[in-house]
Prior knowledge:
The complex is a heterodimer.
Chain A: H1 2-28, E1 35-42, E2 45-47, E3 57-58, E4 64-80, E5 86-96, E6 104-105, E7 114-122, H2 135-139, E8 155-161, E9 169-175, E10 178-181, E11 184-186, E12 190-200, E13 205-211, H3 235-245, E14 249-255
Parallel strand pairs in A: 1-13
Antiparallel strand pairs in A: 1-2, 1-6, 3-4, 4-5, 4-7, 4-8, 7-12, 8-9, 10-11, 13-14
Chain B: H1 2-21, H2 43-48, H3 62-72, H4 85-88, E1 127-128, E2 134-135, H5 137-140, H6 142-146, H7 155-164, H8 168-176, H9 183-195, H10 203-208, H11 216-226, H12 234-237, E3 250-251, H13 264-268, E4 277-278, H14 300-310, H15 333-344, H16 349-352
Helix pairs in contact in B: 3-8, 3-9, 11-15, 14-15
Amino acid sequence: MKKIALILILGMLTFSCTEDNDDKLGSNNINVTPTFTFTQNWDDTAISPSDIENTQYTNANGEVLTITRLRYLLSHFELLDENGNTTPLQGYQLIDLSDAETYNFIPTSAVTPGNYTLKFVYGFNEADNIDGAYTDLNSASWNWPEMLGGGYHFLQFDGQYNVNTTTPMPFNYHNGMAMVSEDNFEQNFVAFEFPTEIPISETTTIEIQFNLAELFKNPNLWDLNTYNTSLMPNYEAQKMMQENIASAFTLGEITQ
Amino acid sequence: MKNRWYIHIIIIFLLSSCSSSSSDNDYVPTQNTPTPSPLDIPQVFEDNIIAPIIPTDNPQTVEGVALGKKLFFDPILSVDFTQACASCHLPQNAFTDSNTFSTGVNGDLGIRNSMPLFNLAWNYDENFFWDGRAFRLEHQALQPVTDPTEMANTWSEVVTRLNNHEEYPDLFKAAFGNQNITKELTTKAIAQFERTLISANSKFDQYLLGQATLTTQEQNGLNIFMDEDRGDCFHCHGNPNNPLWTDNAFHNNGLDTTFSDNGLGQITGDPADNGKFKSPSLRNLAYTAPYMHDGRFSTLDEVINHYSEGLQDSPTIDPLMKKVDQGGVQLSNQDKADLKAFLLTLSDPSFINNPNFSNQ
C-alpha cells in the first residue's frame, strides 16, 4: 500500500511539474518544437528491426546482402523562415535500427509557428565534430579513432554480402572523417537542405527517410568485392561514401 | 551528482511523509532512516561517459551497502552454508574466480566461466550474465541462490535464516526501515554493494588524467587496438573516450563453427543470436583469467592469437570479425606483444586491493 501511495505521489509530482512547464509555454504561446521521425528503407521497402540478419537485399552491383547493424548520426537541424532567418534546433540524434526508441527526436529548442524549410547535417560538421565531447555518444562507443582525425562515426553499417553463395563475406561500411595522409584530414559530413516548405505548428512531425540502397549506387556504383572492410582509413572509400550519402536522405511525410 | 542528491532528498522526504500519514505500524523512526550514499563517480567516467544507472526504487545508502556487503560474503545464502557469492567472485580476481567453470555447493560444474564484477552500474542496458538473461542487477542476484549448480538453496529458506539470525534483522531495519525481510530486499542490498565496485584507477586511467605516461610499446598497442587494419578491437571493447572498455552488447567473436552453448540465442529464441555473448570489459584482465564465456583461453596470448589467426566462421559471426576467411587480422609478433602491453595498462591494482571491497 505504502509503495503504491509513493508511486502515486511521485507520479502526481512529475505530472504536475510537467504541466507547469506546459502552462508556461502555453501562456506565452509562441514557441513550438517539431518532432523528427527517422525511417529506413531499401528503395521504398521499409526496413525494420526484424529485418536485421534476416532479410536479403540486392544492391545495384548485384551483391545480395544482409544487415547486421545500422547506426547513423544526424545533427545541426535548422529551420529557415520565409525571410531567410535561421533557427538552429539544439541536439543531435544517433539512430540505431535495432532500437525503435531512437527513431524519434525532439530538439530542445523551439520556433514560432509558421512555414519553414529544413536543413540538417549528416554526421557532425567541423565545429561540432569535437573528439570525445559528447558523453552519450562516447557511452555508445560512437567515437572515430584519433589517428583518423577523431570525432565521431557518422555511419556504421555492418553486414554480410554474397549471402546467396556458400561463402558470405563481411562488410563494414563505416563513414566519418577522411584521412588524406598521416595527420592530414578532410571533413566528410554532408549538409542537407530541402526546398520544401514545411508548415510547423504545435504537433508537426517531420519524417526523414534514409534509403540504404543509395549507398551502393549513386553516383558511385559500389562493388563490395573491392570495398568491404577496413574502409575507415581508406580515403577514396570515405569520399565515395560521402558522395553516395548525398542522395540517401530525403524528406518524407509531414504530419500535423 | 548534485541532481542525484536532490532526488535522494526528495525521495526520503516523500518516504517520511508517506510513513507519517499511515498507521503507527508503518512509522519509521528518524534514526532508522538510511543515510544516502551516492556513488562516488570517478573523474574519468565523469569526464567521458553518462551517469550510472541507479534504480529510483533502490537508492544507494550507507546501511544498504553495508548489508549488501555482508550478504555477499556470507555463505548463509547457500543450502549447506559453504558458499558465498564471494566464493566465485573473489576480490583478488576482480570479483571473478580463476576456474574455467565454477563449482557449486553440490560439486556440480556450471557451463560458464564466472564473470568479474565492476562498473556494473554503467551497464546502461542492464542486461546481466554472458547471455543477458537477467535484466537489472536486483534480478540477477535472485538466480545464483537457487541455481542448482551454484548455491542450490530456496529463497524461503534464506529468508527464514535471515529472520532468525542475530544480526540481520537489525541490519535490514537500518537499511530499509520496518519492512519484512524478503528476497527482494536481500537482492536490493546486494545490488547496492555491487554498484560500489568501481574500477577506474588503472595506469591508462591515470594516463587519461595526465598523471601517467605510456611507454612506446603501450602506445603502439593502443594504436593497434584502434586501427581498423590491425586490431580493430575498439568497435566492441570501448576506446579512450569510453573507458568502460566494453559496449556491453552481444556478439559472436568467432570462437566456434557450431555451438554447444547458444548464448543470447538461448534467451531470445532467435537462431540469428546463436553464439552471441556479452563483450566483457578489458579492464583488470591481469586478474581475470581464464577468458571467454567458457574460460577456454588461459592466457592473453591465446586470446590475441585467437583474434589474429584463430577465428572460426559461422552464420552468426560478427561482420567486425572481418578477416575470418584468413583466420583473423594477422598481427605480427611485435604487434601482439604491443597489444598485450596496452591491454595490461587497463588493469587496476587499487581495485583488487580496496579494503572497502574485502571481507571485514
